[in-house]
Design brief:
Blueprint lengths: L9 H11 L6 H10 L14 H10 L4 H17 L12 H8 L4 E2 L9 E6 L10 H15 L3 H6 L1 E6 L5 H4 L4 H11 L7 E7 L3 H10 L5 H5 L1 E5 L2 H5 L22 H7 L16 H6 L39
Parallel strand pairs: 2-3, 3-4, 4-5
Antiparallel strand pairs: 1-2
Helix pairs in contact: 2-3, 2-4, 3-4, 5-6, 6-9
């Protein structure tokens, strides 16, 4: 075992060997082979190429060198082509902070039986008057950046549960092709995380319709890992044990505290009563999502080849049309 594997338990080390083809005897050579490919993409600014950073991309692609490099290139290309998203890319940014405090994302305390981190999203918590969908995406990416530092999660990965209860048709109409493409490219094609399952629960018919639209743009592996449970929580429990789930998902634990993960990231910057003025948001991020006019809402509670990613053309009006029309 090398120092790069020091954070792994014996069980996870064995899993990395069997499932990811990770070999401590060739680990430094594997990393160097990926690093040597950087010169083939002079159009991309590779801001990090240290051993620990490259290793997470190798693990995400089961130590296939070229696939790991392609993911590394897409990671930086995505950030290079969406610069506005990554300005003020920190938990204290007003839009990101409010999204985090509303549980975008949440993280359960217990891992599943495969050692995967369980992320949760309660879609109806989106307060359109305080932050945008882009802010939610930024909050999720920022959270993943923090979580992926854990080598155990680099190997074991994540599971995502999205609860669509009370997510309105009007909210769904804001999910434009441009916004969905931005999310797919950022999460599926450009981030070194292994997602073992994406579970939809309590989804209305119009979320089914949206999924039908985006399905062709998902990789086959991703499609196989998306489960549409509807109101059938028993099917969810067959895959994730109810002993580790909060009551919202028919689990045995108390209701989920939306601020749990936000407190971890924000630490002393977290405050329950803070109000955020929409005018203080990062203006460029709003430009990305210019068709989202804030409305108040109260609630209680594809592998892309190198060079294919394209910056959103704000003149592509067809991409800014809602997938669901509010006639």
């Amino acid at each position: 075992m090398t120092h790069l594997q020091a954070g792994l338990s014996p069980e996870t080390l064995e899993k990395a060997r069997l499932e990811l083809n990770e070999n401590p005897d060739t680990l430094h050579q594997d990393i160097q082979e990926v690093r040597d490919m950087v010169i083939t993409r002079p159009d991309i600014g590779f801001l990090r190429t240290d051993d620990a950073f490259i290793l997470r991309f190798l693990r995400a692609r089961k130590f296939q060198h070229f696939e790991a490099f392609r993911l590394l290139a897409q990671y930086f290309e995505y950030r290079q082509q969406n610069l506005d998203m990554f300005k003020s890319f920190k938990a204290t940014d007003p839009g990101i902070k409010q999204a985090l405090k509303d549980g975008f994302p949440g993280g359960l305390a217990n891992l599943d039986h495969y050692g995967r981190k369980i992320l949760v999203l309660f879609a109806a918590n989106w307060d359109q008057s305080r932050y945008t969908l882009v802010d939610i995406l930024r909050a999720i990416l920022l959270s993943l950046e923090a979580m992926i530092e854990d080598p155990e999660l680099q190997v074991n990965g994540f599971v995502l549960i999205i609860d669509w209860s009370n997510f309105t048709f009007k909210q769904a109409s804001k999910l434009t092709p441009s916004m969905l493409r931005l999310a797919i490219e950022g999460l599926q094609d450009s981030f070194p995380a292994r997602f073992g399952g994406i579970h939809f629960v309590n989804q209305p018919w119009y979320i089914h319709a949206l999924y039908t639209v985006i399905r062709p743009f998902l990789k086959e592996k991703t499609r196989k890992r998306i489960f549409l449970h509807g109101n059938n929580l028993n099917s969810l429990h067959q895959l994730i044990h109810p002993e580790i789930l909060p009551s919202e998902f028919g689990g045995m634990l108390p209701p989920y505290d939306m601020g749990t993960w936000a407190r971890t990231l924000l630490d002393h910057e977290y405050d329950d009563d803070s109000e955020c003025n929409a005018d203080s948001y990062n203006a460029p991020a709003k430009d990305i999502e210019k068709d989202l006019s804030p409305k108040s809402m109260k609630r209680s509670q594809s592998v892309v080849d190198p060079g294919v990613l394209k910056r959103m053309d704000k003149n592509e009006e067809e991409n800014m049309q809602p997938l669901l029309s509010l006639d």
